[in-house]
């Protein structure tokens, strides 16, 4: 992994991947979190990282399926306080997905 994606150490000893854009999809249900992420990723440059926070329990399945179809890469998925966080690296040449 490139040094560009080295994890930052936060003050409470938790770690976070550096990201270029942030999308708050909390409170939205399927398919809105993935659709909003798709539009955000479309505006980003290849290799940039989008951090998405979602509360929809189906988001994990939806994001993994979307990224598998489109070619984007999920770098990490983690859950804290019922919020699912995705770190998604934009593909060089995304497929229609």
List the helices and strands and how they pair.
Blueprint: E1 7-9, E2 15-17, E3 21-25, H1 32-43, E4 49-54, H2 59-70, E5 73-80, E6 83-89
| First-last Cα distance | 25 Å
Sheet with most strands: strand arrangement? 3-4-6-5
How many strand elements? 6
Low-confidence stretches: 1-13
Q: Please state the CA-atom Rg, rounded to the nearest Å.
A: 13 Å
Helix segment tally: 2
Structural classification: alpha+beta
Overall pLDDT score = 87
Percent helix, as a range, is: 10-25%
Q: Could you write a compact summary of the structure shown?
A:
The protein is of the alpha+beta class. Helices cover 25% and strands 33% of the residues.
Can you put this structure into words, describing what you see?
The two termini are 25 Å apart. The chain has a domain at 47-97. The protein has two helices and six strands; from the N terminus they run βββαβαββ. The chain is globular. It has helices spanning 32-43, 59-70, and strands at residues 7-9, 15-17, 21-25, 49-54, 73-80, 83-89. With 97 residues, the chain is α+β, with helices and mostly antiparallel strands. The strands form two sheets. It has a four-stranded mixed sheet, with helices on one face. The protein has a two-stranded antiparallel ribbon with strand order 1-2.
What structural keywords apply?
97 residues, alpha+beta, disordered N terminus, single chain, four-stranded mixed beta sheet, 2 helices, 6 strands
């Amino acid at each position: 992994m490139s040094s560009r994606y080295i994890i930052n150490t936060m003050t409470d000893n938790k770690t976070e991947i550096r990201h270029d854009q942030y999308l708050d999809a909390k409170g939205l249900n399927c398919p809105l979190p993935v659709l909003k992420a798709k539009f955000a990723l479309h505006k980003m440059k290849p290799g940039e990282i989008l951090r998405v926070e979602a509360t929809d329990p189906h988001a994990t399945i939806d994001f993994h399926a979307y990224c598998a179809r489109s070619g984007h890469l999920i770098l990490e998925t983690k859950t804290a306080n019922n919020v699912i966080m995705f770190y998604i690296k934009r593909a060089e040449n995304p497929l229609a997905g």
